[in-house]
Design brief:
Length: 192
């Protein structure tokens, strides 16, 4: 009788092993089906100039743009611009302004801003936006923001709307070009 009792337990490890393999197989198939239903495979693209691929789209670092971060943002700003503006103190005036490359990929040098004199400031760019940090010009402080626009017919960047204000360091008078007031008709318009 004791011999009969030993025989069923002889195959117990093999049965446990087979049951374990079957259970693992069912789980793997089930997990694959769940993953296929809940997730789509994302193909990663090659992003240039330090861009990162996030959800199949290139996220560009400041200074670059385009589908693959292949375009430098700065050159569309470079060159000579006709400026028309209407300051709260200075009134309406037109003059020639210039924009050129700064010391890094997101920096822009703007010359003749404010009244057409030889004022030179540094601005930062991020794609189509310009940011003028608070800085000192000749006897004036300046701060501002702006945006560059494409012509819908030529697809060339040919207009910049720049809202800024100049504060006289001696009198503290503020000449506002749509920055403080928010008046769109007061912004400085730069055209090619």
């Amino acid at each position: 009788m004791a011999n009969l009792m030993k025989k069923p337990f002889k195959y117990f490890p093999v049965v446990i092993l087979l049951l374990s393999i079957m259970l693992i197989s069912v789980c793997i198939v089930s997990c694959d089906k769940n993953n296929a239903a809940n997730y789509t495979k994302v193909k990663c693209v090659t992003c240039l100039n330090g861009g990162s691929c996030i959800r199949d789209t290139c996220q560009c670092i400041v200074g670059y743009e385009g589908q693959y971060c292949e375009i430098s943002s700065a050159p569309k700003y470079f060159g000579s611009w006709r400026v028309s503006e209407n300051g709260s103190i200075s009134g309406y005036m037109t003059y020639q302004g210039y924009m050129s490359r700064g010391s890094n990929r997101s920096e822009l040098i703007i010359q003749n801003i404010g009244d057409g004199s030889s004022n030179t400031i540094i601005a930062n760019i991020n794609r189509d936006s310009i940011f003028i940090p608070d800085q000192l010009m000749v006897n004036k402080r300046i701060v501002g923001i702006g945006k560059i626009y494409k012509d819908s017919q030529t697809t060339q960047y040919n207009t910049i709307n720049l809202a800024y204000m100049l504060t006289d360091t001696l009198t503290l008078e503020v000449d506002d070009f749509g920055y403080k007031s928010g008046k769109i008709e007061s912004v400085s318009v730069w055209t090619r």
